Amino acid sequence: MLRTACCFCVAIVAACVPVHANQLVNPGFETPPIPAGGPPEYFGATGWTDFGGGTYTVGSAVVTPNSGAQSLKMFGGASGVYQQFAATPGQLWDGGAYVLNDAGDPMAGGQVAAVNIEWILADGVNQVPGGAGVGFITNGDTISTTPQGQWNLRPISGVAPAGTAFARFVLITGEFGGGGMTGGGGAPKYDDAFFDIRPGQVPEPASLALVGMVAIGLVAARRRR
């Protein structure tokens, strides 16, 4: 009886913590699959908006992905993809992706492969004013001196500032002066991206009260024994 009550208590707490799925569409770049015997890549990424003209979904014949069968290749002065979601000021968003400095096409000079969050105004286009650290935040840790051939998780988190109507998750590469260097080159790869509002950690007050009642009942049961 006591064990059953304990399990019930744990189940209540678990039910009070919301489960949030990754909001990104096609986060691992597996859709659609590259046809067998066809070209090893195709332009862009399904479900993502591309910019700059240098983004390609590639198969394992090009590079071994972090997981699955495909990943995303990027190159150029400034190219990338993004997805955008409704947001409100004060929300905490978590995101990230695995990034590769590919030994087969290594980054050069000041090339950077970044994971960004942009806070977008109600027009759906422009960033909240303030520039870096306000209108957008970035994880640009993958540069030309990053060890080659190793997938690295690049996480990013931020709180939406005043004026935010959308949270835009961006994967981008470009000649951004990484490591204080100039120029650029190479084609970094991305895989297994994720982006979502951080789940709440505190149960609702009514649920807490119910858990407390169960706990009190357990103590009373022990005393009677």
Protein described:
The chain has 225 residues and is an alpha+beta fold. The chain has two domains: 1-17 and 201-225; 24-199, Galactose-binding domain-like (Jelly Rolls). It has two helices and eleven strands; from the N terminus they run H-E-E-E-E-E-E-E-E-E-E-E-H. It has helices spanning 2-16, 205-224, and strands at 41-43, 49-51, 55-59, 70-74, 78-86, 92-100, 111-120, 136-143, 151-159, 166-175, 189-197. Strands 1-3-4-11-6-9 form a six-stranded antiparallel β-sheet, with no helix packed on it. Strands 2-5-10-7-8 form a five-stranded antiparallel β-sheet, with no helix packed on it. The N and C termini lie close together (12 Å). The model is unreliable at 4-20 and 201-225 (pLDDT under 50).
Number of strands: 11
Radius of gyration from the alpha-carbon trace, in angstroms: 23 Å
Task: Assign the CATH class of the largest domain.
Answer: Mainly Beta
Largest sheet, spatial ordering of strands: 1-3-4-11-6-9
Biggest sheet: strands, sense, closure?
A: 6 strands, antiparallel
The name CATH uses for the topology of the largest domain is Jelly Rolls
- The CATH superfamily of the largest domain turns out to be Galactose-binding domain-like
Order of helices and strands: HEEEEEEEEEEEH
Q: How many domains make up the 3D coordinates?
A: 2
- Report the β-strand fraction as a percent range: 35-45%
Mean pLDDT: 86
Organism: Pirellulimonas nuda
Protein name: Ice-binding protein C-terminal domain-containing protein
Keywords: Signal
